[in-house]
Amino acid sequence: MKTHYYFSWFNDFFPEKLVKLLHEDITDRKSLVMISADPSGYTGEQINSDDISEWTWLNQANIIFEEYHFIDYRMEKADAQRIIQNASVIFLCGGYPVLQNDFLAEYELSDVIKNSNAVIMGASAGSLNMAAKWLSLNNTDEVETSTIYEGIGFDPFAYESHSQRDYATFVQGYLFPLSEEIDVYAAEQESAIRVKDGKIETMGPVYLISHSKIQKLVETLGL
Questions:
Q1: Are 145 and 173 in contact (CB under 8 A)?
Q2: Average pLDDT of the chain to the nearest whole number
Q3: Which of 87, 141, 144 minimizes the C-alpha distance to 118?
Q4: pLDDT given for residue 42 in this prediction
Q5: What is the pLDDT of residue 44?
Q6: Which pLDDT band holds residue 53 (cuts at 50, 70, 90)?
């Protein structure tokens, strides 16, 4: 039974109905493994849960684990792979999706994560890299370019999540070319998608873009 959560971003904490579902889905709480989306951005050796929003969300939801592991370049590749294999929950953190994508490739973590029986979660950048594809927009010298990245591919759709983007930007069409080849789920702040045994459910403002048509999805998660 595979369970995947795609989070946009929560400014404070998980909504109550999401907490209820997480408690139902996360029955094994031995080991939480968090994967950085800024893997070389550390400043010291100690990692404090107060510094990691995603960790705080889980703490506030009273989802507590026996072991906590945070993977970035401070950890050896073999250790990272071993820890992921033993994880109860794997959480791909928010931050810089390209840096995280590169890190997953360099440490050869994607297949290890995909073969895991853990509950998989992502926030923002992490959700992008969980999906099959995602689009990176780059603005340089008033020229906008886009690059399509391959994610781990837990589920057969593309994902978009960003605090500066909402329905008004989604309808402008920058995701339409990608939507011609794969369905795109575009999420505003304070939203979540759960895919459990292939069934997709949503909470908060989430839009489905398919073949250049956009529709707001009715909330089904936790109802």
A1: no
A2: 90
A3: 87
A4: 75
A5: 59
A6: confident
DSSP state of 84: H
**How many residues belong to the chain?**
223
- Strand pairing class (119-123; 3-7): parallel
From CA 211, how far away is CA 214, in angstroms rounded?
A: 9
Instruction: Give yes or no for residue 223 having a pLDDT over 80.
Output: no
CA-nearest of 68, 115, 109, 90 to 4 is 90
CB 175 within 8 A of CB 155: no
Asked whether the beta carbons of 91 and 119 are under 8 A apart, the reply is: no
Q: Detail the DSSP E strand segments found in the chain.
A: 3-7, 31-37, 67-71, 89-95, 119-123, 133-140, 143-150, 158-161, 184-187, 192-196, 199-203, 206-210, 213-216
Closest CA to 16 of 64, 62, 66: 62
Element (H, E) at 106: helix 97-106
pLDDT the model gives residue 163: 64
Token code pair at residue 209:
């873009």
Kindly state the average pLDDT of the residues 71-90: 96
Q: Which two tokens stand for residue 172?
A: 């402008």
Nearest CA-CA partner of 198 in 155, 134, 151: 155
